[in-house]
Design goal:
Elements: E1 8-15, E2 17-18, E3 30-31, H1 37-54, E4 59-67, H2 75-88, E5 90-101, H3 108-117, E6 121-127, H4 131-136, H5 143-156, E7 161-167, H6 174-187, E8 191-196, H7 204-211, H8 219-235, E9 239-242, E10 245-247, H9 254-260, E11 265-268, E12 273-276, E13 279-283, H10 287-295, H11 306-311, E14 316-321, H12 324-335, E15 342-343, H13 344-351, H14 355-368, E16 372-375, E17 378-381, H15 383-387, H16 389-394
Parallel strand pairs: 1-4, 1-11, 2-3, 4-5, 5-6, 6-7, 7-8
Antiparallel strand pairs: 8-10, 9-10, 12-13, 13-14, 15-17, 16-17
Length: 397
């Protein structure tokens, strides 16, 4: 397998900087390392350019700047990164270019710079429209600040803006969630992501819950909140295209669809994950080590197989071989998160047989339990199946 097998990919750009780190977050992000920003941007540009060389300048159809807090960077750094992306890759005409942003990090001037740099989609981390909950979550903005930030982005010319919310939080009441949904309805954004809180190991919030400083989230209450969100979003005409995501017509996250369809992508920056056919790999996590290594990196030829190409990237720390069985299982798990589900014809073309040839008994059992249905040449989760997604997905591993 050669670099020519990766002609069209997605690109994830990791920004590890945060002004403050939220107590529920276990991402590879850091506060109080702002002094590294200038050298980090140089290292990031070096990795982007090197991937362009190693993969023979493939076409990139989506870019996602995440973190961390990309909006915490100076706007000029976003311009520098996007210029490197456009030089190193063939950026597809009309490519979706998303940047995560926190309310309060940007003003009208920065928004204009983002647009000029090629960013055409913002994902704003709101999490809640309740000031008390925002404080408990360690967020720096207020509910009104989030509303103002969204409106500022629209006024600046962003036509594609997503809002992120969280439910199933300690202390969160059904009334608070309904109030947040009311505020969301008033804004009517093109795209919404709503995620149930997961207490990740090693985070401050997990320690607080374990020690009794904070009440444990109630899973039954979280399920009620999810159902309330489903009803509200359906009434407003949103398409519930993925278990945790809703979109207006044509406003689905094309970048995240790459992940859910188990398609190739490259991640750059410390701790970033990547997937190329047959391999999943991860960069080392330390921003300082990442900077030091990329500063000493030289150019490489792209004449090699996929694994050899990956091994030429000096910040890649771990490479996992993905065999056919695992690739099929992951494709089933991720694809069933979508309302379109698994298209049998596409699965057959990719793996040399329909899902029933590999998972016949499992599919029959899930159908008999009312969790899975087959229609129009696709396998899809039922409404009940979506509520029990993790139990369904585990059957394929």
């Amino acid at each position: 397998m050669t670099a020519q097998d990766t002609r069209r990919i997605s690109l994830y750009v990791h920004v590890p900087f945060c002004e403050t780190k939220c107590p529920y977050c276990d991402f590879n992000t850091y506060a109080r390392i702002e002094s590294l920003m200038p050298s980090y941007i140089k290292a990031l540009v070096a990795e982007i350019r090197l991937w362009g060389q190693l993969l023979s300048k493939p076409t990139v159809h989506t870019v996602f700047l995440g973190g961390g807090t990309p909006s915490y960077l100076p706007a000029e750094d976003i311009e520098t990164v996007m210029s490197a992306v456009q030089d190193a890759f063939e950026l597809e005409s009309g490519a979706e270019v998303t940047m995560e942003a926190n309310p309060g990090d940007f003003d009208a001037g920065k928004l204009k710079q983002y647009l000029a740099a090629g960013v055409n989609r913002l994902s704003i981390g709101v999490q809640s429209f309740d000031d008390d909950l925002l404080q408990k979550l360690g967020r720096r903005h207020s509910a009104q600040g989030a509303i103002d930030a969204y409106r500022m982005a629209i006024d600046a010319g962003f036509e594609n803006v997503s809002i992120d919310l969280m439910y199933g939080l300690p202390y969160q009441s059904p009334e608070q969630w309904e109030s947040t949904l009311d505020a969301l309805s008033n804004l009517n954004p093109p795209h919404v992501s709503m995620y149930c809180l997961t207490l990740e190991g090693g985070t401050p919030m997990e320690r607080w819950v374990k020690s009794g400083q904070m009440p444990e989230p109630d899973p039954d209450l979280a399920a009620d909140m999810y159902l309330a969100a489903q009803e509200r979003m359906k009434a407003q005409g949103y398409r519930h295209y993925e278990i945790s995501n809703w979109a207006g017509v044509g406003m689905e996250s094309r970048h995240n669809l790459t992940y859910w369809r188990n398609q190739p992508y490259i991640g750059v920056g410390p701790g970033a994950h990547s997937y190329l056919p047959g391999y999943r790999f991860f960069n080392l996590k330390s921003p300082r080590d990442y900077i030091d290594i990329m500063q000493a990196t030289v150019d490489h030829s792209s004449e090699a197989g996929t694994k050899e190409i990956i091994q030429k990237m000096p910040v890649v720390e771990t490479i996992e071989d993905i065999d056919k069985d695992l690739e099929m299982a992951e494709t089933m798990m991720m694809g069933l998160r979508l309302d379109t589900g698994i298209e049998v014809r596409d699965f057959n073309e990719r793996f040399g047989g329909p899902p029933s040839a590999y998972y016949g008994e499992t599919l029959d059992e899930l159908a008999s339990l009312g969790l899975l249905m087959s229609e129009d040449g696709c396998l899809r989760l039922t409404h009940r199946g979506r509520m029990m997604g993790n139990q369904v997905f585990s059957r394929f591993f």
